[in-house]
User: Fold this.
Amino acid sequence: MRKIDFKVRGFSLIEIMVVVIILGLMLGVVVPALISKIRDGEVARIKSDFSNIKTALRTYEMDNYSMPTTEQGLDALASKTDIAPLPRKWPKRGYLERLPKDPWERPYIYILDGDDFQLYSLGRDGQEGGAGPDKDFFYRDIF
Assistant:
């Protein structure tokens, strides 16, 4: 008859603790780097959106001798507005195919300020003001 050996060796508590500590240290390095890359992606998307909106605003201005009013808003770039002053020219496809939203799926805020405009996103928290990850993004600060 064969003898069955029931001695099965497992991991000691110290070995398990060493593995947990190593994993914790790795996560401590990886997670902040990942969060930083996500933030970089959000900023890149905002820059791209601001650039596209600015181009559409300037084209609208060249065609109609003024930018959309604050009341008309950015909607006037994607669909023909019925709010005065009505655009003199309107391309078949508009100036933007669709209005972009910020990385948190909220609309960008547009204000016509005399001959210039303000364009911004309220950031991650959706509230005015804020710092760090909740900071607002203004066109004038990015370009």
Notes: The CA atoms of residues 56 and 90 lie 12 Å apart.
